[in-house]
Specification:
The protein is mainly α. It has one domain. It contains seven helices and two strands. The chain is globular.
């Protein structure tokens, strides 16, 4: 098959709307679940993001705002993906979040390795994602896959099975 045939096949598959629907449900559902886990425990989430040393601790407004806003952003963008409104915007939010947090998890894992001498593939810690303690290398692979799904949400031309598609047709 030529390159032209491959792109045509991919385009036809995208036009069905099914790949985007699956991406929306998986990505949106996962982020709603993870964000919901953090909303009820802002102090715990604050402690977890403090471990990354990415935001200044003084004034406390930076860390406190991040601990309160990020989980709600995950939930709102996740719901938007699930129902199919602002699909590109919600996908872009997740792409940026994953592009920031994935390297942060890697750096934190390397810090733990340097501090404790633990082999990298054995390092596990609560990264703040809302799923509890995770094995670092597995979390990095998971986030990479989720990042690809989020990119697909941005690039997909289909809006079939999206509420915004239904709304536009009215």
């Amino acid at each position: 098959m030529t390159g032209n045939g491959n792109s045509s096949l991919i385009r036809r598959l995208d036009e069905t709307g099914i790949p985007l629907l699956l991406v929306r449900l998986v990505l949106g559902g996962l982020f709603v679940w993870m964000g919901s886990n953090k909303i009820g425990h802002p102090i715990d989430f604050l402690k977890e993001i403090r471990e990354y040393h990415a935001l200044p601790e003084s004034p406390a407004v930076f860390l406190n705002t991040a601990a309160i806003v990020l989980p709600w952003l995950e939930v709102v963008a996740g719901v938007a993906l699930i129902v199919g409104v602002f699909v590109r915007g919600a996908s872009a939010i997740f792409t940026v979040m994953l592009a920031v947090f994935t390297p942060a998890i890697l750096i934190r894992g390397l810090q733990i390795r340097a501090e404790q001498g633990t082999p990298f593939f054995e390092i596990a810690f609560d990264c703040g994602c809302g799923a509890g303690v995770v094995v670092t290398w597995k979390k990095l692979l998971e986030n990479s896959g989720l990042g690809l799904l989020a990119l697909y949400g941005i690039l997909s031309l289909s809006r079939r099975f999206c509420l915004e598609h239904w709304w536009d047709r009215r």
